[in-house]
C-alpha cells in the first residue's frame, strides 16, 4: 500500500526531476505513483444515459486513480447504478440520492462535484464544513454572492479546493504560454482582448412531461424556484437562467478566466460593464428578472439565457475584455466563433484549444522560449505541470493552493455574472471591485443573489 509518507517522498523526487524542464506534463498514466489508498473519495453528480452532461462522471473516474472511491451520489438512481457498474468499481460503491446523507455517513476525505451548475456551491459548502477537500466542476457559482460565500468558507476551513477549469493546466499548455507571453510583454502595452464564446439556443416554449422513474426531480431543482419536469429543462439546463448562465458562465468561465489572468486582473475585477444582447424567445423585452427569481413573475418553459451579445469589461489598469457570441472585426477581416484574440501596442496573438498563433508567436527565439518556460513555471506556482486532477491531489498532500484556486475563479465568475446582469438590467454598470458592489444601480445589486428554497440544504451533522 502506498502510504502518505511514501507519497510525499515520491512527489519530492518527481518534482526534483522536473525542475530542469517545467514543461514536462506528468501523465495520469503515472497515477499509480501518486495514488494514496488511504484517501477516500465520493462522487456527487455523475451524469449518465438520461442526461446531457456526464463531466461529473468523467472527472470522478479521473479522481479514482489517485485514491479510493467509496460512494456515488446522484438524484437519478439510474445514473448511480451506471457509474457504479463501471469496471473500475464493479458495483462495490455505496449509492446515495441525498448528498447530505453521503457526506454525514461516509465522511470522505475528498468530494468530486459534477452536478448541474446551481448545485455546485450548496454542495461544496456542505462538504467543506464537513471536513472534505473539494474538486468542483465549473462554473462554480450561480451568483456573485455565492462566490463571496464559497471564498469565505474555503478560507475558514483551510480545505483544498480545485475548480475544473482545465485550460489552466491542459490543452497542450497553449493557454499557459499565451498568458506568459502577455505578461512578459510580447504584444506590448495597452492590452485588450476579444473573446468569442458562442451563443445559446433560444427555442421554446416546450411541453412538460412525466418525471422519469428513479429521478428525484424536486431534489434536482433543489434551491431554485419550483418547476415542472421537461426533457429540455433537465438535459439543457445551461440555457435556463434558473440553473446556470448560458454561454457567459459556460465558455465564459474558461476564456474570461484566461484573459483576466493574462492581463493581471484575476484577483480583482472590472470597474465598468456595458453591452447589448438578446435572450431566448420566451423572454419579453424589459422583463423583470428580479421578480422572476423571487417567484413574482413567470416565463414560459423555454431557453431563457442570452443568445447573442457583445459586452465590454474595462479594468482599472486600462485593459479591456470584449465578450462576444461570435467575434467579427470592424473591417470584417477577422472572425472566429471561439477563442481569445489579445491585441497590444506591439502585435496580437490568438489562442484557443486548438492553436496559439500570431506574429509574436512566430518570432519567438530559443532564448524567448526558455524565458517563457520560466514564466510558465512561475504561473504554475513552481509545481510540475501535471494533469488538472493530479495537481489537485498533489495540493491535497502538501496543503498548497491548486492552479485553479477558488479566489481567482470567483473573480472570473463575477465578470461572467456581470455580463449577464448588464444584459438583464439593460444599462451600463459601474462596479467597485474592492467592495464588490455595483455603484448606483439597485436592480443590479439585487441580481447578485437569488432567493433559495431550503428544503434540500443544511449543515453537516
Automatic annotation (TrEMBL):
* Domain Gfo/Idh/MocA-like oxidoreductase N-terminal: start-end pairs: 41-164
Q: Give all residue intervals belonging to the Gfo/Idh/MocA-like oxidoreductase bacterial type C-terminal domain.
A: 206-274, 366-456
Give the signal peptide as a residue range, or say none if absent: 1-31
Gene Ontology terms for molecular function: nucleotide binding; oxidoreductase activity
A Pfam family this chain is assigned to:
GFO_IDH_MocA_C2
Q: Which residues are in coiled coils? A: none
EC number in record: 1.-.-.-
Answer whether the UniProt record assigns the keyword Signal to this protein: yes
Instruction: State the UniProt keywords alphabetically.
Output: Oxidoreductase, Signal
Q: Which PANTHER family match?
A: BCDNA.GH03377, OXIDOREDUCTASE FAMILY PROTEIN
Any idea what this protein is called? Putative oxidoreductase YcjS
